[in-house]
Amino acid sequence: MIFFVYCTERYDGRGERAIQDDVLINKVRTGNKQALRLLIENYKHHVYKVAYSVVHDEKEAEDVAQETFIKMIDALPSYQNQGFKTWISKIALHKAIDAKRKKQRKQEELTSFEEDYLYPDEGRVDQMILEKEQNRLVHKAIDQMPAKFQDVVKLYHLEGRSYKTIADKLELKETTVKMRLYRARMWMKENWKEEDF
Questions:
Q1: Are 153 and 141 in contact (CB under 8 A)?
Q2: Phi, psi of 166 (to 5 degrees)
Q3: Number of C-beta neighbours around residue 156 at 10 A
Q4: Could you tell me if 158 and 64 lie in one domain?
Q5: What is the tens place of the pLDDT at every residue in 92-130?
Q6: pLDDT(51) > 70
Q7: Which of 15, 124, 174, 196 is at 20 to 30 A from 75, Cα to Cα?
Q8: Which residues span the domain enclosing 185?
Q9: Are 113 and 70 within one domain?
């Protein structure tokens, strides 16, 4: 038996590890969980090293290794005994490259967002300044209205609250809220000019 294994190894150019792999793979295909654990144990360091050589980050390499073994389980039925170490190395390499690309895309998106936020274009800066100034003028004008109109106008026009919500908040009837808003509009027409804003 030993002589037969030795001859087989010499004949097909494969070592004992390769033969052991084939035995484990056949067992895994029949649902043997212990064989799966052994197969993962045998290659976890190798897969990690392949992943780390691409991503250069310990935590990320661990994640890639885990994804590699998940993919291995899914793809094992199509494995054709073509050299397991090479086969799983390719899976690990592809997973690591994907992970690296995703990380780069996220960094590019974040950089782009930061640039837009920290260094907005000139037109947007002007727009932001105008909006801020207009907002300040509107608040100032509302503060000059009769006190009973101020809260309903702010809640309805600036915060977009419904009549019912305003009524509940100010402990008024809905009809009172509607009436105050109507009178506030009349007051605005008489006292505000469009050029003030």
A1: no
A2: -65, -45
A3: 19
A4: no
A5: 999 999 998 988 888 777 666 655 555 555 556 556 666
A6: yes
A7: 15
A8: 122-196
A9: yes
Q: What sign has the CA pseudo-torsion 21, 22, 24, 29?
A: positive
Of 60, 87, 117, which residue sits at a domain end?
117
Mean pLDDT value of segment 31-48? 93
Which pLDDT tens digit goes with each residue over 143-186?
777 888 888 888 887 788 888 888 888 888 888 888 888 888 88
Same domain, 103 and 22: yes
Position 13: which residue type?
A: G
* Secondary structure (DSSP) of 69-108: HHHHHHHGGG--SS-HHHHHHHHHHHHHHHHHHHHHHHHH
d(CA 178, CA 169): 14
Name residue, tokens 């106008």: 153
Domain-terminating residue out of 62, 90, 117: 117
Distance (Å, whole) CA 87 – CA 74: 13
Q: What is the CA radius of gyration of the chain?
A: 35
Identity of the residue numbered 124: R
- Within this chain, do residues 113 and 135 fall inside the same structural domain, yes or no? no
pLDDT score of 13: 44
